[in-house]
Each structure stands twice: as C-alpha cells, then as structure tokens.
Design a protein that fits this description.
- This protein has four domains: 115 residues, no CATH class; 162 residues, no CATH class; 133 residues, no CATH class; 260 residues, Restriction Endonuclease, CATH 3.40.91.
- Helix 4 packs across helix 7, helix 5 packs across helix 6 and helix 14 packs antiparallel against helix 17.
- By secondary structure, it is α/β, with parallel strands linked by helices.
- Strand 1 and strand 2 form a beta hairpin.
- 53% of the residues lie in helices and 10% in strands.
- It is globular, with a radius of gyration of 28 Å.
Length: 694
C-alpha cells in the first residue's frame, strides 16, 4: 500500500491498537450511537483548510482494491474502509489532511466507538466498478502483470500496463486476419439490420445490480485492423485459446483504467472539481468500448452530397469526388446483396462491379487514393489511449497485395468523409474549414424534405444591455436557423468542429478546447438571442420587416455538429457538462497552454454571465437552466427527421430526445428506447420538459 491511502491506513492501525473504549466514552457528552453527535465531533476535529487536499473518493477506491489484493489483511482493511466512510460522511466538504496525526487518530477512535454502538448496522456501499477494478487487478496479478494502483490511480506509463498491452497485441498478431474474421462474427450479434449500426450499450439500473465488465470492442477492433496482413499459423484449438485470452486480458485492461461507470448517477454528480475527469471518461468510453461508425442510412445521404454543396468546387474536384463515391457505393451494394457486414474484394472483382463507371486505369488509381496498405493501418497503435495512432476511421479500404478489405460497412461509411475530404483538399485547400456553409445548405435540404419551415441566417440587433452582459461591442448577431412550433422557438447554431484525435486520446487540454470553443461558444450565441426574446418579447431583422415574437412560447437551444461527439451528445451528459463548466475557471503552469486556456476561460466567463442573467428570469430557469438545450450531430438530426412531416413533428421529436434518459452512453440507443417508451407516449405533455431516469 502506497500514497495517501497508506498514510490513512497507518493512522487507523495506530488508533485501533491504542483504542480504549471507556476513555473515548468519557470524552463524549450524549448518546454516542447518535450520528449527529459523532459527526459534529468529527467535523470539529478535521475541519481544516490548510495543508494538502486529499481526494477521499480515491482513498476509498484504493482501500477496496487493497482489500481484494491482500486477503490476509482483508478484515482489517474492510474495517478501516467502514471507518473512513463514517468520517467521509461527517465531513463531506472538508479537506482531508493526513498530516494532522493527533486529530485523525482521535477521529478514528470516535468512529470505532460509533460503529460499535450504532443501533442500525449499515454497510457502506461502494461503486461496483471499484470491486471490478480490484478483481481485474487480482486476475492480472495472477497472470504475472503486477500493475500498481496508488490512491485509486494507475499510471498510464506503468511498464506493467505497457507489457499487458503488448501481450494482448502479440496474441492478435498470432491470429492475424483469421482473428479479425472471428472478431466480426462475434460482434455481428450487436448489429441492427434496421438501423444499420452496431449497439454495444450496457443498461445502467438506478438500483445497484452487479454487472460483468464489458468487452472493449473498440480497442480490440483497432488491434485486429492493425494486423490484417498477418497470416495465422495456429491450430484451431490454439486459435480459440488465443481469442479468448485477447477478450479476457483486454476486458481486464479496460476495467482497471476506470472509464466504465455502472451507476447512471455517476454521470449526473458533476461540478468544476471533476469536470475534466468526467469529460475524459465520456470521450474515452465509446472510443474504447464501441466501434467507430456511421449508419449507411445516413452515410449515403451525407456523402458525397455535402461536398457537392461546397462553394468553391471545380469540375475536376466534383468529377473525382463522384467517382470515388460511386465506387464505394458499388462495393457497399455488393455487401448488402450478400448479406455481409465486411468483405474482401480482388482488383478484378472491383473492376467488374465498376465497369460502367470509368476506365480500369482510373478506377485502380481511385482505389489507391481511398485505401491504405495493411502495414500502414493503426501503425504503432497499442493501448486504448492511442487514438492519435489510429487511422481506421480515415481509411475506407485496406489494401493487401491486390485485394481490398472493408472492415465493416458502418466504419466504412464513417471513413468515407476523410477519403472524400482528402480528394477535395487537392483542389480546394482547407476544405474542412469551408464546410460550414455546405453543412447549413445540407440541413436546409433535409428540413425542406421533411416539410420543416425555418428562418435561415436570421440577423438581429443586440441592445446596449446585452453588450454589458457579454462584455463585447457586438451591435448585431445572426442565428443560423430558427424553427417555430406552437410551444417552442428553436434557436439553432451549426458548428462543423468535432473532436480531434488528441481529445479522443483523453488529453484534458484538447477536450476543453473542443468542448468549450464549439459547444459552449455556440450556447453563448444562442443564449444572447434567448435573453433578448425574454426581455423584448421579440427579435427583429434590421435588414427587412421580419420579426419573431415569443408569444409565451418556450425557447429551445440546439447546437448541430457535423460528426458524432462521442458520448457528449447524450442528454444527461450534455446537462452535466454545462453544470460542470458553469462558474468555472481553469489555470495551467505550462506556458504553451496559457493562450488556449485564456480563450477557454473567456468563453466560460461569458457563459456564466449569460446564464446568471438567465437564472433570474423565472423559476424554470433557476431550477433547470440547462434542460432545454440539445447538442446533436448531423446523423442524429437525420434520425430525428425520419418520421417528421411538419414543425410540430420536429418539436415533438426534439423534446422526446431531450426527455427520457437511459444512461446508455449511446444517443441512438437512448432515442430508440424513448420512441418505444410507453409512459412517455401516454404522458407526452408531462415529460416534455422533464428528465426521466430509467
């Protein structure tokens, strides 16, 4: 045992060895089985704001781990854990400093006495994942991997952790392409033919129920894609053994890095103290446990259409983009006809399928452009934190000699974007930066196809009092889209920016940059309009006679990104992000990070000022300031529009996606569940602005 946990445990041992019941009884006036009296005494002893703050949750987690790893001392460690829980309950908001030895020993003795005489015996529960982490560390220890946890934290650079990842990769290498085929057959049960996507979510019950840790399919998928060019030389029995070891070892590795939270409440209790840790969990979870994917139902609508809508297109650019798209569509159609998720094509086979598109020479040239050799796929990828070394989301086809592999049609559709972007960049440098208007035009087309009436690029004047609140000199603003229904005014901001690879690897700075300068900045723009509507009852376009009246309706803010943003767009997580960043300021010692942190803090400062103003408008805003906000991707918007035929349908579906939260860490699964929720259907108006945890 090391770290602060050991400091506490040694104090516990000393207190226990010197504990004399009568001595402690004499120091307390009143009923020492009454928690109020004991808690008051504990609070007086340990109410100190000086010294080093210790995270009590990490100490608790480490004690759970130590109890499992050290069976000979498990009873003592468990007793120390129960004592620690009593003290933690008594001084929830106080600083834990284990250097004030005298006070801690006395506090521990008081807690021993309290537990001896407590009238109702209560076992202090600990989160399931703590026990799972402890069991995984024990399993790995028995397999020869002595990974060290100090104060509930495992260093990513721990040589034993690296050795474990290397051992998993070694087994994947031995299975080679045969292992990949087996992997696809295993995950095929998670594929929905109706929605053309994989579902790997885990249900999180509100009442604690033990659940086995999940297999990190995303992590293992990256490893198998990395080794597609290797041939398996193992016998069938050895193949099965290696495959099972890959699943077991990778599951235990994913478990000990502690991003899979079982309780739905874990995603709700968020504040400025733990927001960075939670952002990291929310982004890493789908990266590790889910496959990168885009449903072909949406992929076919978005690509190549969004590139066709670019303003600076040339004839050559469009011609090449269309050829690449048609080749990819031919291959996808073939897989559909065969009822296959993945496939391998020879050059001759592809040329026969695409004979009507162009010359064999041009088709082969295009295949080279939208593929990579197998030995360049996920090069140097080893651990679940190696997103920066993964390129499978950018590569539709993997090339092995004269054959081409599609790993699965959902990942294939996601990779179309980067493949077409690369082609467009040849003719239109910085295409990605110029996709904003194309995305807006794409949204307009889909609104019109669903009979949704909208205002586009609605300009408005900013009153003087808004300049003071925002601390800017902005005289005028613009809202990308406004959609009106009987009950709502939907203010919509379109942001192309998504999550970078650095964010997907868990980098705190990049997570803050991507979240704040996209999501929060957009919310600031929409909240400005919201405040004007609430104050003035209307917004006017200074260039014409158009105006939008509030007319007693609620205001709903909607931010749209091009790509899915991991789990950040799940409704309960979206709300937690906003609560965690409200009234928060960050500081760094790294000079290179000072400039981006300054931009982040400036955006968050405006966010706090705007919402402080908003919270004074009514009880609804005061009690639930972040509920009528949604953060959706373009594929998610297309999902919402599937059964929309007017503005009221649009309003109903947005509210549905914002009302029922299942904590599945998968927006598509949550929305599907909400559509089938009987309670919601029968009580639509009641749940319109209410979160239901299920």
């Amino acid at each position: 045992m090391k770290g602060s946990t050991n400091d506490y445990y040694q104090l516990f041992l000393e207190a226990k060895s010197s504990f004399v019941e009568d001595e402690i009884k004499n120091e307390i006036s009143g009923d020492f089985s009454d928690y109020k009296i004991i808690y008051s005494e504990l609070s007086k002893l340990l109410n100190s704001s000086s010294g080093i703050g210790i995270d009590s949750l990490n100490t608790r987690q480490q004690l759970v781990i130590e109890k499992v790893l050290n069976p000979k001392s498990s009873e003592l460690i468990d007793e120390s854990l129960q004592i620690f829980q009593v003290i933690r309950d008594a001084i929830t908001d106080k600083v834990f400093i284990f250097t004030n030895k005298h006070q801690w020993i006395k506090a521990i003795k008081l807690s021993i006495l309290y537990l001896l005489y407590k009238k109702i015996k209560v076992d202090h529960m600990v989160p399931e994942e703590y026990i799972s982490i402890a069991n995984s560390l024990l399993y790995l220890k028995k397999r020869g991997f002595n990974i060290e946890s100090i104060d509930g934290y495992i260093k990513l650079e721990d040589p034993e952790l690296v050795r474990l990842a290397t051992a998993i990769n070694y087994r994947v290498e031995k299975l080679g392409k045969q292992g990949f085929v087996k992997f696809i057959s295993v995950i095929s049960k998670n594929y929905s033919d109706n929605e053309k996507r994989f579902f790997f979510y885990k249900k999180r019950p509100t009442i604690p129920t033990f659940q086995e840790p999940s297999t990190p399919y995303g992590y293992v998928f990256n490893l198998f894609c990395k080794n597609l060019n290797l041939t398996c030389k193992l016998k069938i029995a050895e193949q099965e053994k290696f495959f099972n070891e890959i699943q077991n070892l990778s599951t235990h590795l994913a478990t000990i890095i502690d991003v899979e939270k079982i309780s739905p409440w874990e995603n709700i209790h968020v504040d400025s103290e733990n927001i960075i840790k939670k952002l990291r969990e929310w982004v890493l979870y789908p990266e590790i446990y889910y496959l990168p994917q885009l449903s072909p139902l949406h992929g076919r609508k978005i690509f190549p259409r969004i590139f066709e809508l670019l303003e600076k297109n040339t004839k050559d650019s469009l011609s090449e983009i269309m050829l690449a798209s048609r080749i990819m569509e031919k291959l996808e159609n073939y897989l559909y006809q065969e009822g296959a998720l993945s496939g391998e094509f020879t050059e001759d086979h592809i040329l026969r399928l695409c004979i009507d598109l162009d010359s064999p020479k041009n088709i082969l040239k295009m295949l080279n452009s939208i593929s990579k050799p197998a030995n360049e796929i996920n090069k140097n990828y080893l651990s679940p934190f190696d997103s920066t070394k993964s390129n499978i989301k950018e590569t539709p086809l993997i090339r092995i000699k004269s054959c081409y592999i599609i790993t699965n049609i959902a990942t294939y559709n996601m990779a179309k974007y980067r493949a077409l972007l690369k082609i467009s960049d040849k003719y239109n440098p910085k295409t990605e930066q110029n996709l904003g208007f194309a995305l807006e035009n794409f949204i307009k087309e889909n609104f019109e196809a669903s009979n949704v009436k909208y205002h586009h690029s609605f300009e408005y004047l900013s009153p003087e009092y808004m300049k003071k609140i925002t601390e800017t000199n902005r005289n005028q603003g613009e809202c990308d889209f406004i959609v009106e229904s009987n009950d709502y005014i939907f203010l919509i901001e379109v942001k192309k920016k998504g999550l970078t690879k650095d964010s997907l690897s868990g980098s705190p700075l990049h997570l803050l940059i991507d979240t704040t300068l996209s999501f929060i900045k957009s919310i600031n723009q929409l909240t400005t309009i919201e405040l004007i509507l609430l104050n003035e009852g209307e917004i006017k376009n200074p260039n014409n006679t158009k105006k939008i009246n509030l007319d007693g309706r609620d205001i709903f803010k909607l931010i749209l990104s091009l790509e899915d943003m991991a789990s950040l767009q799940c409704d309960n997580i979206k709300s937690s992000i906003l609560h965690g960043l409200y009234n928060t300021k960050f500081s760094v010692s790294n000079e290179s990070a000072i400039e981006p942190i300054d931009k982040i803090n400036k955006t968050l400062d405006e966010f706090t000022r705007l919402h402080s103003e908003l919270m004074g408008k009514s009880d609804d805003y005061e009690h639930s300031p972040f509920h009528r906000v949604s953060y959706l991707s373009t594929p998610q918007l297309l999902t919402l529009l599937e059964d929309v035929n007017n503005n009221e349908d649009f309003s109903r579906n947005i509210c549905r996606s914002n009302s029922v939260v299942y904590s599945l860490m998968d927006w598509y699964a949550s929305y599907r569940a909400s559509k089938n929720n009987k309670i919601l259907k029968e009580n639509e108006n009641f749940f319109k602005n209410t979160v239901l945890l299920s």
